[in-house]
Amino acid sequence: MSENNQLSGLQLAIMRVLWDRGEATVADVHEVLHRDRGLAPTTVATILTRLEKRDLLSHRREGRQFIYKALVSEDEVRKSMVSELTDRVFQGNVAELVGHLLSEQEITAGDLEVVKQLIEKKAKTHPED
């Protein structure tokens, strides 16, 4: 997934429905998102078509319905979007990104312990030169 494939909040919400369900119709996606966002089915259909043009999902026809499936994983999207954020906002400085998250976001003791373990694990696989 390239920088050009950054997703908006609504696009991410639609992709999450596909990741959660594996496959979904316009009606399926609309049902999930309509409660919180009040979207029209035509809006959902338009966004699905645009995501397909970007090769982020595909569809197959079943009767009169299109059934959509994600072609990229949630992890691929996260990696791309976090990389773009790191580059654009923090000039590629991962330490600044992590420092900002730790100082500006509420973090539980449990989450902080997980972060410590992740840092220790990364340090073992990338020892200093």
UniProtKB/TrEMBL annotation:
Record field: transmembrane: none
InterPro entries reported in the protein's UniProt record: BlaI_family, WH-like_DNA-bd_sf, WH_DNA-bd_sf
Gene3D superfamilies given in the database record: Penicillinase repressor domain, Winged helix-like DNA-binding domain superfamily/Winged helix DNA-binding domain
Organism domain of life: Bacteria
Keyword Protease: no
Entry GO MF terms: DNA binding
Key words, A-Z: DNA-binding, Transcription, Transcription regulation
Gene Ontology biological-process entries: negative regulation of DNA-templated transcription
Similarity comment: Belongs to the BlaI transcriptional regulatory family.
This protein's name: BlaI/MecI/CopY family transcriptional regulator
Taxonomic lineage: Bacteria, Candidatus Eiseniibacteriota
